[in-house]
Q: What sequence folds into this?
């Protein structure tokens, strides 16, 4: 047995590339070794910004031999009168066997010639260079590059400067990116110099220890743990705690020997919006803000240096850089506040929202239109209604400010802060500040009713507008984050309990786009309306939102067919707010004994009426009934209709389902046993189909389309 050690020495990798590269390298090694029939011990991958490392324990000297059976030509072709033909001789020669080793077997296709051959295993030292080369070249990054020393077909995230490849004490003959593998690595690029450090053999623990001596902690988890411990200790001294886990992950991949340091800045910068100070530290400089025990931001920050004990000049340099950032922010804010936010509306006309969708002024007009409609649906009155419409009018005004140009991730937040400082109503400022929420998975929803109203308006308008412009997401691309925005709509409707008719909201967004959609809106009033298909646009957006809803509910653990059943009842036509409650009730019913009978009532009606001509809303005519079973089913339907609808309206979904099953199961089954639905008389046939549609639609329109249930049917 021998161990393998591979190191790919690179110029500094972007921090975001490192975790993915580690996972890919380990997975490709496991998969490749399995495909090569190589038993092995532990597979371990790690990285620093300047190296990717793979260690595999206990590799054998050679592959095990492979015994395989190979099918040849039919017996009638391979043998004539018991003698082998050229076909048999060629087949045996191809496999390196004697003709006498061939055997004839019966198969479902007839009698065929077979041969068994054994392929000897290759030595691992010969096989590994091919495998390693393939694994390295198969690594994928968000962006890759070529450089003069590398062959034209070989790309990597950053130029590869050295390779270490050892199997035991032997250097493997690996050549990739114009580099020939050796047995040397390098330590810290500045503190240890770029002197080669030779390894005697592929001993990962010895390699790890050797690098530590040369000021490199090669284990990513060790670096992260050290950074976490030091930062948490410093924050605890101030009464705060670690809040920036994502930043911790990023900083871990920026250094090879971390040391946490503290810097300070002038407290007068705390007069800036807190979000600005924090963004200057975290987003621009990768610093950790320090808060006190009350959660207030202090004039201190932590940063991670790439050296064991940084000199004072390192701290001073980081303080100077942050001071410049904050001074710029203070200057931009002073200049921005010279103009009222309400005076910035005209400037929106000079900023293109999208070349096919007009300007930000057009976008603001659509927001106002849609916010007024949604505020009415949500029952907002008085100050709440005024706040929602006022916030919609001013929501995009901060996109004209210098501070948002410097901190684009704070759009909305800056607008809310400026509105507060300029004396606008707090409800308007808060709604503007939170109208982009939720920005990402797991983000908080808007807290205020006006904020939820404007956030819904913004996201629904974006969906309708970009779909109208032909920019809906594809299987591989979603440049305008429409899936995320669609999921945001779903979350606000369900988690926020907003009871609106989404169909009406989308319809209003389509109308707003027709009036204020820039080039798209102009095309809607042309003599050729084909460029603005309002009906098709509405259907596409609705279907998109239903798909987001289905995915959201499946992610919560609900059965896929029950999700489809509830969505099939028109959940997007009314309110998503009660949809989850219906789904919970249907999930509970699916575990009960009578569920199959309930499904059968709806499904049996559906199997007969689907594909048949006739209006879905046509009512059965009792005067046309010819058999008592028809009348009995009709009377049972009419008798249960009122209590069923009443139970649905008060949210007693399980009670409603039980009423439907108890009153209609027996009459439906008797009807199908005694009545021939497809009667020769068209009028009689149409009336019977209308009766079955009415039985099905009573449950389907209000609760769930049980014809979509897959599990639990009879």
A:
């Amino acid at each position: 047995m021998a161990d393998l050690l591979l190191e790919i020495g690179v110029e500094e990798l972007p921090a975001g590339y490192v975790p993915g590269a580690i996972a890919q390298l380990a997975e490709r090694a496991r998969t490749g070794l399995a495909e090569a029939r190589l038993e092995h011990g532990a597979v371990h991958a790690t990285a620093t910004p300047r190296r990717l490392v793979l260690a595999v324990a206990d590799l054998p000297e050679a592959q095990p031999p492979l015994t395989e059976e190979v099918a040849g030509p039919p017996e009638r072709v391979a043998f004539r009168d018991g003698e082998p033909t050229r076909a048999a001789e060629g087949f045996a020669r191809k496999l390196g066997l004697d003709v006498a080793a061939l055997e004839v077997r019966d198969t479902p296709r007839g009698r065929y010639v077979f041969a068994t051959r054994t392929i000897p295993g290759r030595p691992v030292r010969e096989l590994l260079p091919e495998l390693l080369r393939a694994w390295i070249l198969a690594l994928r990054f968000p962006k890759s590059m070529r450089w003069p020393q590398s062959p034209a077909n070989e790309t990597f995230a950053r130029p590869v400067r050295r390779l270490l490849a050892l199997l035991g004490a032997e250097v493997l003959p690996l050549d990739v990116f114009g580099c020939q593998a050796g047995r040397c690595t390098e330590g810290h690029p500045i503190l240890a110099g770029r002197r080669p450090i030779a390894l005697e053999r592929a001993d990962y623990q010895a390699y790890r220890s050797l690098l530590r001596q040369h000021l490199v902690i090669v284990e990513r988890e060790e670096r992260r743990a050290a950074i976490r411990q030091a930062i948490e200790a410093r924050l605890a001294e101030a009464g705060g705690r670690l809040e920036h886990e994502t930043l911790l992950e990023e900083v871990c991949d920026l250094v090879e020997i971390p040391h946490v340091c503290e810097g300070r800045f002038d407290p007068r910068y705390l007069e800036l919006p807190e979000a600005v100070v924090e963004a200057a530290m975290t987003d621009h400089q990768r610093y950790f803000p320090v808060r006190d025990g009350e959660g207030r931001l202090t004039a201190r920050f932590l940063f991670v240096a790439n050296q064991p004990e940084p000199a004072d000049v390192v701290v001073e340099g980081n303080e100077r850089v942050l001071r410049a950032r904050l001074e710029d922010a203070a200057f931009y804010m002073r200049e921005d506040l010279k103009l009222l936010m309400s005076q910035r509306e005209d400037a929106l006309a000079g900023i293109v929202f999208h070349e096919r969708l007009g300007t930000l002024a057009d976008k603001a007009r659509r927001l106002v239109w849609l916010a007024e409609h949604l505020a009415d649906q949500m029952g907002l009155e008085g100050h709440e209604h005024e706040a929602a419409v006022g916030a919609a009018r001013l929501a995009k005004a901060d996109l004209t400010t210098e501070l948002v140009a410097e901190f684009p991730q704070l759009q909305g937040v800056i607008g809310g802060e400026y509105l507060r400082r300029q004396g606008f109503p707090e409800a308007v400022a808060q709604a503007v500040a939170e109208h982009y929420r939720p920005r990402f998975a797991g983000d908080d929803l808007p807290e205020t009713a006006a904020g939820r109203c404007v956030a819904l308006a913004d996201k629904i308008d974006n969906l309708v507008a970009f779909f109208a412009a032909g920019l809906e997401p594809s299987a591989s691309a979603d440049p305008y984050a429409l899936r995320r925005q669609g999921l945001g709509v779903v979350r606000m409707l369900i988690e926020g309990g907003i009871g609106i008719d989404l169909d009406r909201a989308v319809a209003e967004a389509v109308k707003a786009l027709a009036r204020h959609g820039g080039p798209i809106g102009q095309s809607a009033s042309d003599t050729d309306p084909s460029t603005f298909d309002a009906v098709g646009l509405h259907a596409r957006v609705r279907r998109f939102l239903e798909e987001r809803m289905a995915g959201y509910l499946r992610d919560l653990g609900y059965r896929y067919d029950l999700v489809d059943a509830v969505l099939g009842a028109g959940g997007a036509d009314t309110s998503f707010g009660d949809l989850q409650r219906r789904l919970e009730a249907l999930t509970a019913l699916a575990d009960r004994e009578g569920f199959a009978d309930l499904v059968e009532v709806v499904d049996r009606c559906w199997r007969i009426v689907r594909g048949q001509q006739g209006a879905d809303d046509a009512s059965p005519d009792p005067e046309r009934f010819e058999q008592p079973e028809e009348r009995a089913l009709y009377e049972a339907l009419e008798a249960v209709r009122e209590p069923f609808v009443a139970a649905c309206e008060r949210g007693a979904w399980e009670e409603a389902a039980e009423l439907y099953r108890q009153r209609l199961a027996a009459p439906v089954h008797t009807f199908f046993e005694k009545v021939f639905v497809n009667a020769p008389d068209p009028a009689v046939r149409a009336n019977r189909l209308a009766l079955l549609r009415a039985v099905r639609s009573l449950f389907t329109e209000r609760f769930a389309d049980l014809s979509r249930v897959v599990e639990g049917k009879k």
Remarks:
- Residues 342-557 form one domain.
- The chain has five domains: 2-62+123-213, 66-119, 220-336, 342-557, 591-708.
- The first strand starts at residue 2 and ends at 10.
- Residues 118 and 443 are 59 Å apart (CA to CA).
